[in-house]
TrEMBL record:
PANTHER family: ALPHA-1,6-MANNOSYLGLYCOPROTEIN 6-BETA-N-ACETYLGLUCOSAMINYLTRANSFERASE B, ALPHA-MANNOSIDE BETA-1,6-N-ACETYLGLUCOSAMINYLTRANSFERASE
Gene Ontology CC terms, in alphabetical order: Golgi membrane
Species, as recorded: Electrophorus voltai
GO molecular function: alpha-1,6-mannosylglycoprotein 6-beta-N-acetylglucosaminyltransferase activity
Keyword match Manganese: no
Biological processes, Gene Ontology terms: protein N-linked glycosylation
Protein name (record): alpha-1,6-mannosyl-glycoprotein 6-beta-N-acetylglucosaminyltransferase
Lineage of the organism: Eukaryota, Metazoa, Chordata, Craniata, Vertebrata
Amino acid sequence: IVQGGLESRGVLRKISDMLEIILKRIDTLAKLSNTSESHRLEELSSALDRFQPVGLMERIQAIAQNVSDIAVRMDQILQKTGKDGIVGQCEVPKDPRYPDCASKVDIHSIVVYPALQLHKHRAGFNKAMVRSDLGPLLEQLGSGKESLSFMRRRMRRLTTQWAVAARRLHEHLLTFQRPQKRVLVHVGFLTEESGDVFSPKVLKGGPLGEMVQWADILAALHVLGHNLKISVSVKELQGFLGVPPGRGSCPLRGPLPFDLIYTDYHGLQQMKQHMGLSLKKHKCHIRVIDTFGTEPAYNHEEYATLHGYRTNWGYWNLNGRQYMTMFPHTPDNSFMGFVAEELNQTERISIQNDKVNNMAVVYGKETSMWKRSLKAMFCMTKQHYTCKKAEHGQGKDKFLSILHRYMDIHGTVYYETQRPPEVPAFVRNHGLLPQHEFQQLLRKAKLFVGFGFPYEGPAPLEAIANGCIFLQPRFQPPRSSFNNEFFRGKPTSREVSSQHPYAEQYIGKPHVITVDYNSSEEVEAAIWEILKAKVEPFLPYEYTCEGMLERVNGYIQHQDFCHLDRPFPSTNESRLWLGNPPSPFMPLPNSTVLAWASNATSVPCWPPVSALRLLLAPKVCSCVKACQDVGLVCEPVFFPFINIMETFSGLGVQCQALEVEMKHVFPAVAVERSECFLQKEPLLFSCAGESSKHRRVCPCRDYLRGQVALCRDCL
């Protein structure tokens, strides 16, 4: 047994646990037999009598005791020998919410194995080697449900692109020492415990964006050479984390067996249930894949509760950059992204020759998307006069009839036996197509049409990559959690000005045209523009395999939320600012923007402080918009550097008073009086947020063309 080590000892524990459960259930049955419900147990009791030999209870009790004694004796032997392990002696925390904790620790004594400690130290020295073969990953992923099969098919289809990107990246990374990370990927939304509403809809036109992103995340982590474990059930999660079955009454003991854990909001909730008090200790290792983003005001539990930002999501008190989005729309978060299929030169030439100039494909695979999107498209608010028309189908027919005048319209709407009545007769519906056939359809089409829903999906990028122009509606007013049912309850106040803001902002014309669908003149003008335009396939670098690998590698090597040190001491009390100290900022030529002075204190951080650009925003303007307006992006990493008194003197602001408070728009300057404000709570540093009473002080940075997540000095 001692030679067997951890595995043998674990088996003994499991046997003991199972026997203990059997005893409890038999005891429960015995109690039930004394109640009025006993007649329901007669048949079961008869079967048990035929199965059980005389004295079964006594034998089970004896076996359980023997197994427990052996396990305890094994602990004692290991403690005395010191060869295979040592028993961790520590006080069991007392918490009225977990009354059984101490007794469970008595039963399940904790052993810390030197071999595991050695592995932890070695992990820092195991070099991550770039891989080009996805075979081992495909085997590990399995195919137990349709969602996993979809992800496997996607990985196979992109195998060549990942291999090419791996070769290019390998040459770049040869000079870097990259430690191999132990990574757990727990896809919470695919677990049965979360309901897994996605898997049954994979073959019925359901949303695939999340599965596309998770497949690409897995591929990127594998190609980058990290040690990967994949979980799509709570049972697997418990096994990988080493937590006992149940709801996690006891906190996790010993070191976390992973350096990084990628999950989603469902998975985060499951980890809370099963890790208990340990989650707070280990949450710095977690990365949350979050499609629409989480802003700091919603993330800080106390602040969200007090100021009306509390939702069913958010409130986890994570560092904002631990949330990872599908598009770079929330600078407070990290942009994870996904990949779109790239074309080789032969394919690009073929597409140019095969394009059908008057062919349009509609974005929407479910009939519900057509109903919901078209009604929502014409109903910007409930009071809008076109709402009644849209309800009777007139708004929909008007838009499609205009488009049909100039182009042949194709759809890919799922149906089983009969053509969906929501799809007009003049639309040629191909039904739900496999991904490679859908790609072929896009390669022929000139136009890809968005109806306003779904928001911010991957399909428009795939269409643009295949040489289509993407036509989408402009939203007036913009949609957000304050006026739109879809966004309501999401932990963000972000305003969405069109169906796909990334395509509008970062790609734009001639590949993306955004118009007011309520204006017949504007729609017709856009269609004429599309018919005359000649466009080539286009894909931003950040959505290529190489771009994603470059970005994810940067995060893994440089983001560390377990050892966060403030570069400057915070001011912890309100005071009058009587002096005018020198500023660590210097003005840029012919600009109101300031940069970090080359002779100022240099503090190691990523992105490097040399990329910092400082500006004072107008009132009622977020730092997201203020930075965008000067061709930069807001960088939350730099907030601690500017949360100092010297910032205001550098900007030429004369502060008669200085306050330090918890408010997600601070640091800032009051509009109506000479009062300045610093941020008291680091978790509330926020690029998002605006105020009519304050002008925000904003930290910005430059970015690489086609790779907005990285600055010029980041690599």
